[in-house]
């Protein structure tokens, strides 16, 4: 299988299936496309060639069949590799893991828009300023902290539903945002973040993102503050 992704420093959507597949031991090759959203750019042409949605990530199966959207990719992987641990084995925990992953998939727009993923950056001053100004951001983070605390209490950890799985992969970009912008979180959240960052699959993505050094202006709205 081949996974088509964008820049690792910025592409939160690409991060999800990449770290999930690495964590679950699912073999794939990576095709990274440099973000360029100008009309008829190489990025746009390459993505359009494999997905009518025109966005990354895209998972190309063994026969070349394309699957896009991170939830669809996760479910396809669960179907094809039922023993890989994409979702929890327990039915109730599996349903909860899908629920919180879907909530991440469709929600938290304030956090996303005000704190774009930028793994290489350290922007605590931006984080503090936006935190003070944006009640919607504070509400998003409070809800995320509640989700994590509830899941960890139900499963016993170390990750949201025991072993690292799809829910952790879906929230890994949130961990990146909380770290980059130095947002205030509780001890349970901080400890979970530390475990996510230390996971080999996530650590590998972070290392690649930091090494990239490919800065794209439209993905760096706060660079002037650095």
UniProtKB/TrEMBL annotation:
InterPro entries: Glutathione-S-Trfase_C_sf, Glutathione_S-Trfase_N, Thioredoxin-like_sf
Keywords, sorted A to Z: Transferase
Pfam short name (any one): GST_N_2
Record's keyword annotation contains Heme: no
PROSITE patterns named in the record: GST_NTER
GO biological process, one term: glutathione metabolic process
SUPFAM superfamilies in the record: GST C-terminal domain-like (SSF47616), Thioredoxin-like (SSF52833)
The keyword Transferase is assigned to this record: yes
Domain GST N-terminal: 1-85
Molecular function via GO: glutathione transferase activity; maleylacetoacetate isomerase activity
UniProt protein name: Glutathione S-transferase family protein
Organism: Rubrivivax albus
